Amino acid sequence: EVQLVESGGGLVQPGGSLRLSCAASGFTFSSHWMGWVRQAPGKGLEWVATIKQDGSGKFYVDSVKGRFTISRDNAKNSLYLQMNSPRAEDTAVYYCARVCTTCYYPVRFDDWGQGTLVTVSS
Amino acid sequence: QSALTQPASVSGSPGQSITISCTGTSSDVGAYNYVSWYQQHSGKAPKLIIYDVSKRPSGVSDRFSGSKSGNTASLTISGLQAEDEADYYCSSYTSSSTLAFGGGTELTVL
Predict the structure, then answer these.
(1) CB-based contacts of B103: which residues, under 8 Å, 6+ apart?
(2) Is the dihedral of CA A73, A74, A77, A80 positive or negative?
(3) Rounded to an integer, what distance in angstroms lies between the CA atom of residue B37 and that of residue A12?
(4) Over residues A23-27, mean pLDDT
(5) For chain B, what percent of residues have pLDDT higher than 90?
(6) Mean pLDDT computed over B90-100
(7) B21 CA: distance to closest CA in chain A (Å)
């Protein structure tokens, strides 16, 4: 069974930093594109970032470019999102998600974690 | 990186059918057959219910179906049931190697 468990969320001040983690199990982590999707309170889903199997390809939504960094450690079956200089508008539940098994490109997310809440406030 | 356009809300009675539209552009919905639909119940994580425009993952009811014409994709739910009440989101792969989501549609089963 695929399991994705996020951690690291909490309260962070604007301009601070926070690192989200996602522990993956139940599948061959190193074979999958992975990504982060967020959902602001009462709002819709927003794709944040995606990373290739070996970490060589990374894509970001324009609003986080230069501030957030997606990374992975295949030896630890873990995905990360380093959030630097967060803003109030980054407040959201952040979901870790697995891209489809047979997909060469990151065209969809087949499995999702339960999410971790990040609140950016002074 | 624009969001796809969905109606904010739809409603239907048990047993009826409803359709949710998802309009994009020639750089996303119109460019690829990589449209997906997700169901999200309140307080829960999203769940994939349709992928590649019209395919259903194992375990998803055949009451859910998808289609696409040009830059607009659609999700149809037939034989509405109370458990279908949820938020529904479309997404599409884009020519920039990103993913675009729709704004979401709240389905109310009357």
Answers:
(1) A44, B3, B4, B5, B6, B8
(2) positive
(3) 32
(4) 97
(5) 97
(6) 95
(7) 16
Residue with tokens 């884009």: B94
In this structure, what token pair is assigned to residue A60? 């970001």
Substitution target in A45, A94, A99 with the highest count of B β-carbons within 10 Å is A45
Give me the residue from B45, B48, B97 closest to A108, CB to CB: B48
**In chain B, which residues have their Cβ closer than 8 Å to the Cβ of A48?**
none
Residue A43, pLDDT above cutoff 80: yes
> What's the Cα-to-Cα distance from A116 to each of B4, B16, B24, B90, rounded to whole Å?
25, 36, 29, 22
Tokens encoding B38 = 């997700």
Residue of A11, A28, A122, A23 lying closest to A78 (CA atoms): A23
Closest CA to B37 of B92, B79, B84: B92
The residue of chain B with its CA nearest to that of A44 is B103
